[in-house]
Amino acid sequence: xxxxxADKFSVxxxxxxxxxNLPLVVWLLARTFRESGNxxxxxxxxxxxxxxxxxxxxxxxxxxxxxxxxxxLPFLSGTAYIHGMKHATxxxxxxxxxxxxxxxxxxxxxxxxxxxxxxxxxxxxxxNGGVYGWDLKRKLISRGANFITQVLLRPGASDLTGxxxxxxxxxxxxxxxxxxxxxxVFQMEMIVRARQLGYTIGEVPISFVDRVYGESKxxxxxxxxxxxxxxTLFATT
Amino acid sequence: MTKLRQWLCGLALLGSAWAALALAPPRLQLSDPYRQALxxxxxxLLVAFGCYSLATVGYRLATFNDCEEAxxxxxxxxxxxxxxxxxxxxxF
Lengths: 237, 92
Description:
Chain A has helices spanning 22-36, 53-64, 80-87, 107-115, 136-153, 169-178, 183-196, 220-236; strands at residues 8-15, 39-46, 69-72, 92-95, 119-123, 130-132, 165-168, 201-205, 207-209. The relative contact order of chain A is 0.15. Helix content of chain A is 43%, strand content 19%. Chain B has one domain. Chain B has helices at residues 3-22, 32-38, 41-62, 68-87.
C-alpha cells in the first residue's frame, strides 16, 4: 500500500518526439484518474527528443504540479522503465504508449481490484478489444504472429506484444531484474517470466488506434527480428 | 524446463512410441490394418495441425475488431483536451 493506505498509480510514459501527443495523453490520464478519485502521478521519461517534447513536459509540470508530473531524463537509451521506476512513488505502475495509440481506460484499475491481480494486461485480441487503422495484411501478420507465439510459448495471456499494462510495483521490479530482452520481445518476456514466477495476470480488452501506420509500415526486418526474439524465448524460458 | 526441452521430450516420447509400434520387426508386428494406419500417422497429424492453424488464424483474422467508436471518441477527446489545455495556458 502507498502512504495513507490508498492505492496510488504511477504511469510511466517513455517519449521520443511526442511533442504533439504528450499533452493530450497527460490531459486524458489526469481527467480519468481525477474523475474516478484515484491518486496518481505521471512520469515522463524523455530520451532526448529534438522536437521540444521536454519543453512541453515542463509546461505540463507547471500546469498540473510537480507532484503529479515528474520528468526523467535517462542517460542511456533503452533504460526508460528502469529510470522511470526510480521516481515512482505509487504502489501500482502503468505502462503505456505516449502516442495516443492506447486509449486511456479505467478498466485496468477496475480489473485489478476485481481479481487482486499482480498484472493486468491489455489485449487487442479478446472481448471488444481491437485495432483501428490496420489493413488486412497488417491484421494477418498480427494474428499469425500471435498464433505462433501461443503455440510455442503457451503463455496464458492472449496478447503478448501489447505494451499497455498495469503492474504491482514489486512485481515490475522483480520482472525487470530477470528480463534480458529489448523492445517488444521484452514485453513478451515479462509475461512469460511472470507466469513462471506464479504471478496472477488479468486481461482487459483495449483499443489500439494506429494513427502512424500509414507512415511506418511493418517491414521484413521487424518480422525477422520478432521471430528471432520468439525463438530465443522458446529456447531459454 | 524450457519450452524447447518440453517439446523435444514430448516429440521423443511420441516418436519412440510410434517407431516401436510401426517399425517393429516382423515377429512383433501388429496386425496389418493397424500398421497401415500407424505408419503415415505423423504426416497425418502434421497436415491436421496445418489445417487447424489455417482455420484458427483465418477465423481470428475475420473476427478482429475494428474500433471505429474508439477512434471517433479519441478525436472528441483530442478536441476537448486541446481546448482545455489552451485555457490553462499551455502553448502548443
